[in-house]
Fold each of these.
Amino acid sequence: MHYETTVAPPRWLDRLLFVLFVACLVGAVFAWLEEGPVWAKLIPTAAVLMTLPLVGARGRITVDDHALTLAVGPWFRKRLPLVEITSVELTRAAPMDFGGFGYRPLGGGAAAFVFAAGPAAKVHATEGRLLVVGAPDADRLVEVLRERATAAEDV
């Protein structure tokens, strides 16, 4: 079995990030139209460049024959080889349980990849690592990870 899904933040957050981007863009345009020091123009320009990747950002969860891969656009990718998975269980998670949306390193070998409140896979890995992955069909993700991890151990 193969698993692949896209996860998105709540619609309100998408809209808020878009409004923030537009506000930064308008501020940058006005800064460049006004007379003043270059640093006063570069700050709003930097804000535009930092908010642009957040607009429409989506997470991608993929399980293939070798690894569980978590990705956000072209700028973030985290792979967990299936042979390192020791157990998987179904749980529930919310972004605020982990300090926000997206990929969150929690320290002590723990991390979360959560975009919305709901079902999640709790993945235990070697060396005491823990990864919580939120997905709308987390039960299927758990099933695929269990099957693939068992198959990877047999190889």
Amino acid sequence: MVKRVSMVLLTMVLAIIALFLAAKNPTGPNTVSFDEPFILWISLGILVVLFLPPLILSFFNNLAVKIISTIYQVFIVLTFLGLVPVGFMIPSTSVIVIGALGTVSSICSIIVTILVEIKNLTFM
């Protein structure tokens, strides 16, 4: 359980770093920036709320709950994968690195979620 929770928290921290990178380098008037702190706080709150389901689901050892958590985390992987081409379009190596690290962290979280259940099933 500790491994799953820590992997989800690591992924959430990487998403928050990506949000702060986006606020540091706004690309237009309709993007999040440090000039409007209220909008930044709202974006941060939404990000934390979106990470609550996999965080809460990581506390349970039921197979169905782990499958739901895995499916939810696949969408997080796709989101981080979408950051990599955005980093190439902006030309920002930090966005590319955060996108790659977030992808790797999310994939590792999925693997840990799945393998812990397989490991528990083999000992029964």
